User: Fold this.
Amino acid sequence: MYLDEQEHVTWAAVGIYTEPAEALEFAHTFGPRCEGASRLVIWAERKANFDRKLGTGRAHFTMNGQAQDRDETQKATDLHNADTWAEVARVMAQPVK
Assistant:
């Protein structure tokens, strides 16, 4: 929670459905001083690892017991997302100044 430009209490968070770009914006806005920063570092690293595995074909989703192949566009998106999540982790892991 924080005060916005008009001095109103508002809030921001990163959750399971947050897109990587939104998480990166959050990281740049609030940085390692925010509550739960250390947990976000771990979570973002794991998201980056999983997305990298999806993008390189080392992981997949399963539907009705069948592996679902990802096309090249999906794999490229996965790799881009992995890079973004890794950047979130890097930003949030910086020493607090």
